[in-house]
């Protein structure tokens, strides 16, 4: 797959010339190096209304387009699929996998999602490196990230297979969590005194646990079940920029700016803008406003030394875990964006979602002045 995008502007000052490259959203097009042969179909779990669309899509991909269809094992465990004898011949051709056990990242040409925005987030989590193009059908509740309607899925899928589609590159966050653990060494013979007190020679052993994640929407650090304020330090490129005292802080991509961050009062950023947004959650300050920083910086979040309680972190609403003193969360823009296939183009799709899903700037229009009222002024 190739993605073409370019705008160049040359500027001259005396004998010096410099070039300014601007990304044109309309120039992002899907072009296949060779026809796609394998497709991953992701279906929202526990939704009976999606069973028939799922069967119709898989039959079309497998029988009509002769494609290799990958499906997660738990999707096929639905009794409505298991007991459908007519779907059996198609189901036997599927390649199945299990999350956290099977690596399919190098076997998929493109992805089709059936459901809501959560299916796109789940697709992102399956690919720690390069992500295949994603085509998302709106069969969920909100559908901000799912621009396609399922009624004409055959013609729309055919256009994608033929390479006739626009793309928006949704930046992701590369997150590294470093945890410090203290564990006592295994007691050896005579290592513990007769009264059960630990021998001074057996000291606590330090070691670090490192975990990495690719995040499409946001990293959320909050106070968890504690009744105290969250108290975390935020560093930018090694410099302390602020301490968050409140319910927590959201670090989001432009794609995530229309999710939790929007509910917390942040601005909404088009996904083509290279940026990271930092949004406090209920800060105990009248002057703490959300800020936008360049995509290339590295953020680090740690518990403040005088924090009264631990914090909790989650990544696109998943993998929630506790953060203790000495632990750190490093965040920067990933070099592996998610190519999302557009229904029209990146700009039109985004404003359509703002209007349809979030009812952006919906207001009853003001009436015009009557002719006699204008004459009075």
UniProtKB/TrEMBL annotation:
Enzyme kind, highest EC tier: transferase
EC number: 2.7.1.23
SUPFAM superfamilies: NAD kinase/diacylglycerol kinase-like
Protein's UniProt keywords contain NADP: yes
InterPro entries, per database record: ATP-NAD_kinase_N (IPR017438), ATP-NAD_kinase_PpnK-typ_C (IPR017437), NAD/diacylglycerol_kinase_sf (IPR016064), NADK (IPR002504)
Keywords: Kinase, NAD, NADP, Transferase
Pfam families according to UniProt: NAD_kinase, NAD_kinase_C
Gene Ontology MF terms: kinase activity
HAMAP family per record: NAD_kinase
Alphabetized PANTHER family for the sequence: NAD KINASE
Family under the similarity heading: Belongs to the NAD kinase family.
Name of the protein in question: NAD(+) kinase
Organism: Gekko japonicus
Encoding gene per record: NADK
